[in-house]
């Protein structure tokens, strides 16, 4: 081992020796702000998992722009024709709005006639 490496190793070993390594790691994480970053990463993971479960993500409706509006249509026979009567269709001024409307309609309860 090099002299610098050995000196560093000995210094760290003397500080950690007889101590609780868990406490040392915890203190290092708290002092460097890693705890907050870990919480943020967990929140971002939760958000991503939620987005992955949206009906528009799972079922991948086709997006069609027609008359200045965006339509998210599930399982269309012909993607150039939007059939509001027989298919589940989300409507919006942007693709994002259409997808969120699709999700809302997917989760809506059917009214019986």
Task: Describe the model.
This protein has 113 residues and is of the alpha+beta class. The protein has 2 domains: 3-52, no CATH class; 60-107, no CATH class. It is built from 5 helices and 3 strands; from the N terminus they run ααααβββα. It is rod-shaped, with a radius of gyration of 27 Å. The N and C termini lie far apart (83 Å).
Properties at a glance:
12% strand; three-stranded antiparallel sheet; 113 residues; 5 helices; alpha+beta; 2 domains
| Major sheet details | 3 strands, antiparallel
Shape: rod-shaped
Uncertain segments? none
Please, how many domains? Answer: 2
Q: For the largest sheet, list the strands in their spatial order.
A: 1-2-3
Produce a short descriptive summary:
The protein has about 110 residues and is an alpha+beta fold. It is built from five helices and three strands; from the N terminus they run ααααβββα.
List the topology elements.
Layout: H1 3-16, H2 21-32, H3 34-52, H4 55-58, E1 62-66, E2 69-73, E3 89-92, H5 95-107
Antiparallel strand pairs: 1-2, 2-3
């Amino acid at each position: 081992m090099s002299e610098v490496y050995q000196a560093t190793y000995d210094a760290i070993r003397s500080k950690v020796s007889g101590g609780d390594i868990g406490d040392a790691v915890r203190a290092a994480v708290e002092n460097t702000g890693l705890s907050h970053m870990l919480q943020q990463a967990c929140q971002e993971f939760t958000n991503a998992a939620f987005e992955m479960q949206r009906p528009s993500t799972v079922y991948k409706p086709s997006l069609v722009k027609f008359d200045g509006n965006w339509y998210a249509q599930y399982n269309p026979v012909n993607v150039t024709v939007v059939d509001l009567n027989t298919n589940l269709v989300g409507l919006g001024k942007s693709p994002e709005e259409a997808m969120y409307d699709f999700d809302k309609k997917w989760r809506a309860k059917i009214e019986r006639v």
